[in-house]
Amino acid sequence: LSNAYAHWNNIAIENTSLIMQEYAPNAELTWIGGPLQGNYTGIQQINSTWTRFTNLYEYVVWYAEQPPAVSVSGTSATVSAQLPFIVFPFNTTANPTPHAVLLNVNDTLQYTFSSGSWMIVHETWQVAPAPISSAAPGYSTPQFS
Q1: If you write DSSP's letter for every residue of 26-52 in order, what string do you get?
Q2: pLDDT at residue 145 greater than cutoff 70
Q3: Are 64 and 83 in contact (CB under 8 A)?
Q4: Which site from 14, 21, 79, 110 is most exposed, i.e. has the minimal number of CB atoms within 10 Å?
Q5: pTM flag (> 0.85)
Q6: pLDDT above 70 covers what percent of the chain?
Q7: Distance between CA atoms of residues 129 and 122, nearest Å
Q8: Which distant-in-sequence residues (6+ apart) come within 8 Å of 112 by Cβ?
């Protein structure tokens, strides 16, 4: 569970170097929903995907409303969680005054224990964007700059 929390924290601080240290060399990332949808295999493709994610957002925060589900069997483990990520996009020519967005994420991390550490071998990141007011009723959509 501590590895999963570290993973989500590394995503929030947008540190691809730390994120990539968590994956096994032949890991797979399945991204469902949003502009990064696809299947990515291996460190290079996964790194490219997380780099694209960090290039979209200037600021990222996450929280858990319920504890993640954890199962461990021998040298395999699975952690699943529903995680709201609040993201603040970078200003772009196409979107000069971006608004904060809520990304409702269902994340399932599959780990294997190898060489003394737990490594992600498969991650399914299912994301559904929503207005931030859906997580914070009464919160008006601000301009972020």
Answers
A1: EEEEEEESSTT-EEEEHHHHHHHHHHH
A2: no
A3: yes
A4: 21
A5: yes
A6: 91
A7: 22
A8: 24, 75, 76, 77, 118, 119, 121
